[in-house]
Structures are given as structure tokens and as C-alpha cells.
Design brief:
- With about 325 residues, this protein is α/β, with parallel strands linked by helices.
- It has 2 domains: about 10-95, Helix Hairpins, CATH 1.10.287; about 145-310, P-loop containing nucleotide triphosphate hydrolases (Rossmann fold).
- The chain is about 60% helix and about 10% strand.
- The protein contains 14 helices and 7 strands.
- It has helices spanning about 10-15, 25-35, 45-70, 80-100, 105-135, 155-165, 165-170, 185-195, 205-215, 220-230, 250-260, 280, 290-295, 310-330; strands spanning about 20, 75, 175, 200-205, 235-240, 265-270, 300-305.
- It has a 5-stranded parallel β-sheet. Strands 1-2 form a two-stranded antiparallel ribbon.
- Helix 2 runs antiparallel to helix 3 (about 45-70).
- The protein starts with 7 loop residues before the first helix and ends with a helix.
């Protein structure tokens, strides 16, 4: 039987903590309770009970610390605790309703489960539509229509492995490197779409738009909120790094965003410049080495080579128009 998931009120009870609280308060409560429930201080025969209780305390503290990190100002208010607890109770009621339906007699379950299943499917559909709108992927060619023979260098097995999203399970990054028009953005959009279908939150943005949005914010609090927004997506796709040159401020902002996501969330980057050339993309920026180091650590870097597929399609369209004109003359 799966272990019960504690809601925020139960977590606070375990740590003997009262709202409002911040990350530091949680850490102090964790240390205090760890001393009390450490197996070494348990009475004879109760070591296992203390060990299990201490594990629950640490799990509760981890969740409360993550909650505090995500709150404005890093502090969890009483009202936030009430809202979170109410959401947990609603989720628990839905789960209990589902379990009751699964144990009903066949005839009754067929009717009730049909209604419940309709609600679940509708909720899943609306969730996907909402995440698709937020993702800003735009129109793209599916991988089924991708011409694998056009690039002179293309690791198809590695790209198909990215499509399985194994790198997201490891909170690793992925980098697609190659010249213009070779298909980097198409591959990135397909990976982003696959992540959406699997239930992840995704944002697809060009480097220029993302860094411009961050650089336009003057207020420190507004900038911190925006960075937290970008850092929260399960998969962040940054397209076209290297097509423009950026100031030191842009470099610092990209470093801060990368640092917030480092080993917590996955980032997918497409670029036409080798990492050794990123000093030209961010000239005079002191953080370029550290930025690249965080991006490529535990990352899948896939290089593509070949001529522009866009140029090939443009030439084909020009030839087709010329043929139509010749046929009209004859």
C-alpha cells in the first residue's frame, strides 16, 4: 500500500512549527526534532519507530523548505497554509471518490465510473490546452516529416532518446548545436511538445525575447518574480542563442536563470555558435565560463552539420514557379 502523503498542516505538526515561517525556521525545527527522534536516543526496542518518525520529519521539512523558497520574500503566511491545506483536502476527497468507485459492483461502477472518467478526461484536456497556450511553441513540422538524410551529420539515436525525455528525469540539459536552417528549432519544438503531452510544464522562447523581457525590468522585486517564473517550468527551451550579441547585463541575467535551474529543472538550448565562441555572444561578460559550465554539466550536446534546409526549400519553390511559368507560355 502506498505511503500516505502528508498535507501542510500535518507537516507542521510533525515539526511542531507554527506559521508564518521561512526556510531558516524549518531548518531549526528539523534540527530540534532530529535530536529528539534520533534512533540513538530511542528507548530499547523502539529504534525502528524513531527511525521511521525521523524519516517522516525529514520528508516534511524538505517539502516545507521548497514551499518557503517559492514564496514571495521566502516566508509562508498563515493564509498560504490555509489555502494549501484546503487544496490538499480537495485532492484527498477526489482520490477517496476514485477509490470508492473502483470498489463498486460492476453494474453500478459502470455508470458512476463513466461520469467520473468523463470529468477526469475533461480536466486533463483543459490542462493540456492551458499548458499548450503558455508554452508558446507555435507551428512546427512533426518529426515524422523530418528529413533525416538532409544533414550531413546528425545523431538520430541521440535525438530520439531526447524525445523519450529521459534527460528530464535526470534534470539534465540538452544542447542542439549547428548552422542556420539545419532543423535545430524543429527538433526542439517537437521535444517541447512531447514534454507537454507527458504532463510537464514547458516554455519555448527565443534568447532575444527572454533576455529582453528580463532586462526590461527595473524593480528588483519584479525581476525576482520574473526569474522565478522562468525557473519554474519543467522544461525551458531557449532558442537561437548566438544569433545576436548581448550586454553584460543580459549575460548576468542568463547566468542567474541558469543557476536557479541548475540540477533542479531541465533546459534545452539551440545555438549556432560553439561554446568557445560564446565570448563573442556575450563580449566582456565575466560569467561566460561559469554559464557554459552549468549548461554543459551533465548535458546531452548534439551537433548537426549540413546546408540550410530552408535554402533547399526556397530553391525548390523557385524551380516550381519557374516550371509553372514555362508551362503557361507553351
Amino acid at each position: 500500500m502506498p505511503a500516505a502523503i502528508l498535507d501542510i498542516e500535518q507537516q507542521l505538526l510533525l515539526l511542531e512549527l507554527e506559521p508564518p515561517f521561512d526556510k531558516r525556521d524549518v531548518q531549526l525545527a528539523r534540527r530540534r526534532m532530529a535530536k529528539r527522534w534520533h534512533p540513538d536516543v530511542a528507548p530499547s526496542g523502539r529504534q525502528f519507530e524513531h527511525e521511521r518518525h525521523l524519516k517522516a520529519i525529514n520528508e516534511a521539512a524538505d517539502q516545507l523548505e521548497r514551499l518557503a523558497e517559492g514564496m514571495r520574500g521566502g516566508r509562508v503566511s498563515r493564509n498560504a497554509v490555509k489555502v494549501s491545506a484546503a487544496a490538499a483536502r480537495r485532492a484527498r476527497r477526489r482520490t477517496e471518490a476514485y477509490l470508492r468507485l473502483r470498489t463498486l459492483p460492476a453494474e453500478q461502477a459502470q455508470v458512476d465510473w463513466g461520469h467520473f472518467g468523463h470529468l477526469v478526461i475533461g480536466r486533463a484536456r483543459r490542462s493540456l490546452e492551458r499548458r499548450l497556450r503558455r508554452a508558446c511553441i507555435g507551428a512546427f513540422k512533426p518529426m515524422a516529416d523530418f528529413d533525416w538524410t538532409w544533414p550531413t551529420r546528425c545523431d538520430r539515436a541521440a535525438i530520439e532518446e531526447l524525445m523519450n525525455l529521459d534527460f528530464m528525469a535526470e534534470t539534465a540539459n540538452a544542447v542542439l548545436f549547428g548552422p542556420n536552417g539545419i532543423g535545430k528549432s524543429t527538433i526542439a519544438r517537437n521535444i517541447a511538445h512531447q514534454a507537454l503531452i507527458r504532463g510537464h510544464t514547458v516554455l519555448f522562447a527565443s534568447a532575444g525575447a527572454l533576455l529582453g523581457d528580463l532586462a526590461a525590468l527595473d524593480s528588483a522585486s519584479a525581476l525576482n518574480r520574473r526569474l522565478r517564473h522562468y525557473a519554474g517550468f519543467d522544461l525551458l527551451c531557449i532558442d537561437e542563442v548566438g544569433y545576436l550579441s548581448y550586454s553584460n547585463r543580459h549575460a548576468d541575467l542568463l547566468f542567474e536563470l541558469t543557476n536557479r535551474r541548475y540540477e533542479k529543472k531541465s533546459t534545452l538550448i539551440t545555438t549556432n555558435r560553439a561554446f568557445a565562441e560564446w565570448n563573442e555572444v556575450f563580449p566582456n561578460a565575466a560569467c561566460v565560463v561559469s554559464l557554459v559550465d552549468r549548461i554543459i554539466h551533465n548535458a546531452e550536446v548534439i551537433a548537426l552539420e549540413g546546408k540550410s534546409y530552408r535554402l533547399k526549400e526556397a530553391q525548390q519553390r523557385t524551380e516550381q514557379r519557374a516550371q509553372r511559368r514555362r508551362r503557361k507560355k507553351t
